[in-house]
Design brief:
By secondary structure, this protein is an alpha+beta fold. The chain has four domains: about 80 residues, Pleckstrin-homology domain (PH domain)/Phosphotyrosine-binding domain (PTB) (PH-domain like); about 150 residues, Orthogonal Bundle (Helicase, Ruva Protein, domain 3), CATH 1.10.8; about 130 residues, Cyclin A, domain 1, CATH 1.10.472.80; about 120 residues, EF-hand (Recoverin, domain 1, Orthogonal Bundle). Helix content is about 60%, strand content about 5%. The strands form four sheets. Strands 1-2-3-7 form a four-stranded antiparallel beta sheet. Strands 4-5-6 form a three-stranded antiparallel beta sheet, covered by helices on one side. A two-stranded parallel ribbon has the order 8-9. Helix 8 packs across helix 10 and helix 13 crosses helix 15. It is globular, with a radius of gyration of 29 Å. It starts with a strand and ends with a helix. One of its GO terms (molecular function) is small GTPase binding.
Length: about 600
C-alpha cells in the first residue's frame, strides 16, 4: 500500500491480480480492527468499504491515513463550499458545477462527445459488429457489478483482458477519464475549464497562431473535423490548455491526440484528459525539445537490445529506431494506424501508461522481424513498416465505413496479410507483459541524463557555431568561455533560487537565448575575465558594460552578447577598445549613440 498526496494506492504482490486507487477526497472514515489481523477498513462515499489485512507498519499507516484524509476533507470542503454549501456528495457538487457551467457556456462549450453527435448508435439496425459491441458492454457491466464502478473500482486481470479486447464505444470516454485520473482532476476543479475558456478566448500569440494552422490537419478525414462543431471544440481545448500551461503552450501532435479525445469525451473531459497526458502520463513530451519522448525512445532502444538482439545486430545504426518511432510515442500510434485501430491502443495507454506503447512497439518490430532483417537500408525498413501499418485492421469496430481508414484498402487490392489490432495487442501483452514499471522507471532515469547531456552538447555546438562568425576568439577559447559562462549561471542559480536567469530559463527558446545571466552574475564574470577588472572603478565599468549589452532592458544578456564584449577587450583594435570605453561612459538612461555617430565623434576627437 502506498499513500501519495491525493490517493491511497494498493496492489497485490502480483500486480496483475488486484489493484485499487482510492482518491482521498472520497474517503469518509479510517478504522482499524481490534484483533491481531492488523486490518485497516477504509470507508468511502457510495456506501463502499475496503478491508486490507496484514498491513505492514500498521499503527503508523493508520495515523498517516487519518491525517491525510482529514486534510483532504478540509481542502475539498473549502473548494466546493463556494459552489454548494449544502452538498455532501461529490456527485452532487459535480452536478451543480456542471449545470452552472452549462448555463454560462452553453453556446460555446460542447456537452457531448463528438462521436455521439456524428455517429449515434442505431439500435434498430443491429449487425454482427453491433451485437459484438453490445456483448462487450455486457461484459463490462458484469465487471462493474463485481468490482464497482467509478473512481474506486478495483482492477483485476479480468479488467486488463477487457481493455485489451477494446473498450466499447459507449464506455470509452468514461473509462479513459477513470484510468487516467482525469476524473479526479475535473471533480476537484469545478468550473475551471469554463473559466479558462472564457479568459483565453480572443488571445493572440505564437501558440494560438500554431493552433489555427494545425486545426484542419487534425483527423481531416473524419466528419467531426470537417465541420465547425469539431474544429471549434478542438480550438477551445487547445487554446485553453496553452493558456493554462504557457511553458508547454502548444506543440505539434497535441492536435492529433486532442481530436481523438474529443471523439469520445465531452469537451471539458477532453481538456482534463489532455492535462493528464501532458502533465503526468507523458511528462516532458510536449515541448520544443521533447526530452520525455527522446528518453522513452532511448528506453525503447534498450528494450530492443534485450528482447530482439538479432535486430540490433542487423541494424548498423540504432538511431533508426528513434527516427521511425518518434511519431509512435508522440501520437500514441494515432498518426500511423487507422483511427478504428488506434483508439484500441489509446485504451491500453490510459490503462497501462507508457508500458503499453513500449510493448506494442516491440510486438510490431517482432512481427516484422524477417522483413526488417531482409532490408538493405533504412528507407526500405521504413517502407516495410508503413505497409504493415496500412494493413492493420479492427474487424470488430462498429464505426461506419466512411470513417474507418483501414477499410479504404480492400482485401483484393492488398497483397499483404491483414493484422487485427486486438490480436497484435494481445501478442504484445503475452510476449512483453513481463516488463515491469520499476524497470521502465529505472531505464528512464538512466537514459534521461544521457539525453540531456546530448541536447546540451548540441546546444553548445550550435551556439559556438553562430558566435564564432562574429568574434576573433578561437573555437577552443569560445568553448572554454561558454563553459565558464554556463557554470557561473548554474552555480548562482543553485545558491539563489530566485535568480532571474533561472526564472527566465526556457528550453524552447532558440539556442542563443536558452542561457542568460543577470547583472550580478555578469559582475562576477567581469571581475574574473576582464583585463579592465583591475581598475579602481571596476564595479562601475561592469555595470555600464552590462547596461550597454542589455539592449532590450530585460536585465539579462546571452552568451553572444557576453562573448562580443570579451572579444573586444582582448582582440579588439585600439580604436575598437576606445569606442567601447566611450559608449560605457554615456550616462545611463540615455539612448545609445549609433555606430556611425560614434565614428564621427572619434574623428573629431
Amino acid at each position: 500500500m502506498c499513500i501519495s498526496e491525493n490517493y491511497i494506492c494498493f496492489a497485490s504482490q502480483d500486480g496483475n491480480l488486484c489493484s485499487v486507487i482510492i482518491p482521498l477526497r472520497e474517503v469518509l472514515a479510517i478504522d482499524k480492527t481490534d484483533d491481531s489481523s492488523k486490518s485497516v477498513i477504509i470507508s468511502i462515499k457510495g456506501k463502499t468499504a475496503f478491508r486490507f489485512n496484514e498491513v505492514k507498519d500498521f499503527e503508523q499507516l493508520v495515523a498517516k491515513l487519518s491525517l491525510k484524509c482529514r486534510a483532504a476533507s478540509t481542502q475539498y470542503i473549502s473548494t466546493e463550499g463556494t459552489i454548494s454549501s449544502d452538498s455532501t456528495e461529490p456527485s452532487d457538487n459535480f452536478e451543480v458545477r456542471s449545470s452552472t457551467c452549462t448555463k454560462e457556456c452553453s453556446k460555446t462549450v460542447n456537452t457531448e462527445a463528438l462521436m455521439t453527435v456524428f455517429h449515434p448508435q442505431n439500435l434498430e439496425t443491429l449487425n454482427s459488429k453491433m451485437l459484438k459491441e453490445k456483448m462487450k458492454e455486457q461484459s463490462w457491466n458484469i465487471l462493474f457489478s463485481e468490482c464497482g464502478r467509478g473512481v474506486s473500482m478495483f482492477r483485476t486481470k479480468k479488467t486488463r483482458d477487457l481493455v485489451v479486447r477494446g473498450i466499447p464505444e459507449a464506455l470509452r470516454g468514461e473509462l479513459w477519464l477513470l484510468f487516467s485520473g482525469a476524473v479526479n482532476d475535473m471533480a476537484t476543479n469545478p468550473g475551471y475549464y469554463a473559466e479558462v475558456v472564457k479568459q483565453s478566448l480572443g488571445t493572440c500569440n505564437l501558440a494560438t497562431e500554431e493552433i489555427e494552422r494545425d486545426l484542419r490537419r487534425s483527423l481531416p478525414e473524419h466528419p467531426a473535423f470537417q465541420s465547425d462543431t469539431g474544429i471549434s471544440a478542438l480550438r477551445r481545448v487547445l487554446t485553453a490548455y496553452a493558456y493554462r500551461n504557457p511553458k508547454i503552450g502548444y506543440c505539434q501532435a497535441m492536435n492529433i491526440l486532442t481530436s481523438v479525445l474529443l471523439l469520445y469525451a465531452k469537451e471539458e473531459e477532453a481538456f482534463w484528459l489532455l492535462v493528464a497526458v501532458c502533465e503526468r502520463m507523458l511528462p516532458d513530451y510536449f515541448n520544443r525539445r521533447i526530452i520525455g519522448a527522446l528518453v522513452d525512445q532511448a528506453v525503447f532502444e534498450e528494450l530492443i537490445r534485450d528482447h530482439l538482439p538479432q535486430l540490433t545486430e542487423h541494424m548498423t545504426d540504432m538511431t533508426f529506431f528513434s527516427s521511425v518511432s518518434l511519431s509512435w510515442f508522440l501520437t500514441l500510434f494515432i498518426s500511423v494506424l487507422p483511427i478504428e485501430s488506434a483508439v484500441n491502443v489509446v485504451d491500453c495507454f490510459f490503462y497501462d501508461g507508457i508500458k503499453a506503447i513500449l510493448q506494442l512497439g516491440l510486438a510490431i518490430l517482432d512481427y516484422n522481424l524477417d522483413k526488417l532483417l531482409a532490408c538493405k537500408d533504412d528507407a526500405e525498413a521504413v517502407t516495410a513498416l508503413n505497409r504493415f501499418f496500412d494493413n492493420v485492421t479492427n474487424k470488430d469496430s462498429p464505426l461506419p465505413s466512411n470513417v474507418q481508414q483501414g477499410s479504404n484498402v480492400s482485401d483484393e487490392q492488398s497483397s499483404h496479410i491483414r493484422v487485427d489490432i486486438t490480436d497484435l495487442i494481445k501478442e504484445s501483452n503475452e510476449k512483453y507483459g513481463n516488463i515491469r514499471y520499476e524497470d521502465i522507471h529505472s531505464m528512464r532515469c538512466r537514459n534521461r541524463l544521457y539525453v540531456i547531456q546530448t541536447l546540451e552538447e548540441t546546444t553548445k555546438q550550435n551556439v559556438l557555431r553562430v558566435v564564432s562568425q562574429d568574434v576573433k576568439l578561437k573555437l577552443h577559447e569560445l568553448d572554454e568561455l561558454y563553459v565558464i559562462f554556463k557554470k557561473e549561471l548554474f552555480l548562482s542559480c543553485y545558491w539563489c533560487l530566485s535568480c532571474p536567469g533561472l526564472k527566465h530559463h526556457d528550453p524552447s527558446l532558440s539556442y542563443l537565448e536558452q542561457y542568460q545571466i543577470d547583472c550580478q552574475q555578469f559582475r562576477v564574470l567581469y571581475h574574473l575575465l576582464s583585463p579592465w577588472a583591475h581598475s579602481a572603478n571596476r564595479d562601475s565599468l561592469a555595470l555600464w558594460t552590462f547596461r550597454l549589452l542589455d539592449e532590450n532592458s530585460d536585465c539579462l544578456i546571452n552568451f553572444k552578447e557576453f562573448s562580443s564584449v570579451i572579444d573586444i577587450m582582448y582582440n579588439g583594435s585600439f580604436t575598437e577598445k576606445l569606442k567601447l570605453l566611450f559608449k560605457l561612459h554615456i550616462p545611463p538612461g540615455k539612448n545609445l549613440i549609433v555606430f556611425h555617430d560614434v565614428q564621427q565623434e572619434f574623428v573629431s576627437f
